[in-house]
Specification:
By secondary structure, this protein is an alpha/beta fold. The protein has a single domain, classed as Purple Acid Phosphatase, chain A, domain 2 (4-Layer Sandwich). The chain has 8 helices and 12 strands.
């Protein structure tokens, strides 16, 4: 069983296009999308269409909820998307259990897309949960793998027999490496393994598209170029 996991596309069609090419070359049995699909400036309409085409199991990201705000960026993104996109994105579930409960997917944590598992922004740059904190957050969870995104930093830890995996981000890196990220999970011999992928794409084209078409794109363009 092979499961592809993407998260935090943030409307970057240029990064996603390259990730999908790499992803499909692995012939996954299932694709999971952990949210924050379109809140960004590098061609969100095309990014949304490509994500729909994957037929992925999807969960709600915190930035899906930002699409409902009355500001320039949210209004511009809504104007790029099909009429039914807002309802689809904002009604996604907080978490999703697949493969008879072996995998459990969320964006931030299991009850809040603004929360966190493993990595945290709330207490400064990339603090980590303590083992007691993880036990509290995952109390009663029997999944073999718990998947999250949100913090734009991939990583993995274990709590007993449960793997906790952060998928990183397709777009808007924060570690100085602009490559797009995704994960291939594979079950072999009853055990799950995670292969963390980093993919080169044309971030110059992504930044140029954002600067030409989107409002107030200078900061995002710099993120795309510099990681």
């Amino acid at each position: 069983m092979r499961v592809a996991v993407i998260s935090d596309v943030h409307g970057n069609a240029f990064a996603l296009e390259r990730v999908i090419r790499d992803l499909l070359s692995e012939s996954p049995d299932l694709v999971l999308n952990l949210g924050d699909q379109v809140y960004g400036r590098a061609d969100p309409a095309r990014a949304y269409a490509m994500q729909l085409s994957l037929g992925a199991v999807e969960v709600l990201g915190n930035c899906e909820l930002l699409l409902e705000r009355d500001d320039a960026l949210a209004s511009w993104i809504r104007g790029q998307l099909p009429d039914d996109a807002l309802e689809h994105l904002t009604k996604l579930p907080l978490n999703s259990s697949v493969l008879s409960g072996e995998l459990l997917a969320c964006h931030g944590d299991l009850t809040d897309p603004n929360g966190h598992l493993f990595w945290s922004w709330q207490r400064g740059p990339y603090q980590t949960d303590t083992i007691p904190e993880l036990r509290r957050k995952l109390e009663g969870i029997s999944a073999r793998v718990v998947l999250c995104g949100h913090t734009h930093r991939e990583g993995m830890t274990a709590l007993g027999d449960t793997l906790i995996v952060n998928a990183g981000a397709v777009s808007a890196q924060i570690d100085g490496d602009p490559r797009a990220r995704w994960i291939l999970l594979e079950r072999r011999g009853g055990r799950w393994n995670a292969d963390f992928r980093r993919v080169v794409y044309d971030w110059n084209a992504a930044a140029s598209w954002a600067l030409e078409h989107a409002p107030d794109a200078q900061e995002e363009a710099a993120y795309l170029l510099e990681g």
